[in-house]
Structure formats: C-alpha cells, structure tokens
Amino acid sequence: MESLSDLYTRHAALSLEKQLALGHVIGTNSFAFDADTGTLGFGEDLRFPMQVLGTVSRQSSTWLWAWASPQPMRPALLQAAQHLRILGQLLAIKELFEDGFDVVTPAVAGLTQNPGAEPVDGHYLAMLAAGVCQASAYYGADYGRGIAYVLLPQIPAVDTQLTDEPAKLAAIFAQLLQLPYVFDHRAALAAYLQQKGYTAGQDGFQMHAQKNGHHLAAIFDSASRLRTLEADGVATEVA
Q1: pLDDT bucket at 112, cuts 50 / 70 / 90
Q2: CB atoms within 10 A of CB 37
Q3: Among 138, 159, 180, which residue terminates a domain?
Q4: Which of 224, 127, 93, 217 has the alpha carbon at shortest distance from 167?
Q5: Can you tell me the distance from the alpha carbon of 190 to that of 199, in angstroms, rounded to the nearest whole number?
Q6: Looking at the whole model, is its pTM more than 0.85?
Q7: Whether pLDDT at 109 is above 60
Q8: Which whole-number Å values give the CA distances from 172 to 96, 162, 226, in the listed order?
Q9: Which residues constitute the domain of residue 184?
C-alpha cells in the first residue's frame, strides 16, 4: 500500500508547477477568505471556489483537519478533506484520517535527535492533496495564529499555463529539489513525466523519456538521488 511519502512523491512535481502558475495569476494581491460563499478572493477581481483542508497552529505546531475543527464548516467545503480522510483509512495512513498531529517543520527536522524524522507540514500535505484531488492549486491563508490550507479546485488561468516542454519540466523538477522535503527523486521524476504523457524507460541508474521528438535524460545515484538532468541535450543544474 502507498504511504504518505509515496503520495507526496507521486504528486509533488506537478503540484509545484501548479503553484508557480498560481503565483503568476494572483501576483502580490492579498487574500480574502469567505466561508459563507466558499470562495477565496485575491484583489478586487479574482474569486475562486475553495475546499478547506485544515490548519496549522503556530502556538501548538499541530495540524488539524477541517472536518475536526471546533468551528464547523459547511459540508460542501469539506469534500476534498473527507476524500483524503477516506483514502487515509483505506491505505492506513494515520496522518490523513486522525483529527490532527504534530507537524514536523524543516527546521525542527534538522534539529531533532531522531535521524529518521522527515519534514511533514501544511505545505507538504497541501501539495499531495492538490495531486490526489486533481485541484488546480492550493493556498496557505495566514490568519496570524496559524495558516489555513485550502484547495482551489479549478482555475483555468492556472491550467492553461501547464506545459510539457522538456526544458521547463527539467527546471521545475530542479526547483522541487530545493524544497526541504524527503522523497525518492527517481520515482518522483518518473511520475511527473508519466503525468505529462512522456514514454519513459529506465536502465540501471539512467532514465530516458520521449514525447513528440523531445527527450529528457536523467542519471541517479544508488540512493535514487538525481545527479544529472538533460532536456533535449541541454543540462539543467540540479542540487
């Protein structure tokens, strides 16, 4: 069965691409959270339907799913969170079906005495949720005492920016490697290329993918960490 890490690995690259596209759409506009209409607004003109996932409390450093909140919301706003709850029960992923849990921020993970500790925070959960629920993007709405994470199910202006150009895919994946989360690079790249319609093959530490005459080539080390990535013969710098 898939783990929480497997879900993140499968969806992280495409979710990051969507987040970058969302940034171009909303710019520097501040957000307006409207639970009555079920929308998240930016500036005067942008209003998007939303699904509420949950919150991270700054005081307690905990995640709380929206369906467990002491301030109930309309069921229509919780459909995505409930879907993830059911998925978590099916896959025995406690982070998805328990009311809440202590988040592990990247800073805490770096200081912990537990060498196996990996960062799992609101952005991590929202990235995998956006993929599982096939949302256009997510947003972390900072309300001072914490951050409320919501999915934005359908934003055409985001969806039209998504690309299958190999150089852009390589650049996006290189950016993913800069995030502080632990994941299998080889599996993540294979999933991303499959989502983009590429035909990929692997031979030892190498991966080759093709689509419409374009070619991506990657080399990994024995721990599946990406070492080199080329798009149509042009190398992309990776960490």
Answers
A1: very low
A2: 10
A3: 159
A4: 217
A5: 9
A6: yes
A7: no
A8: 27, 11, 14
A9: 166-236
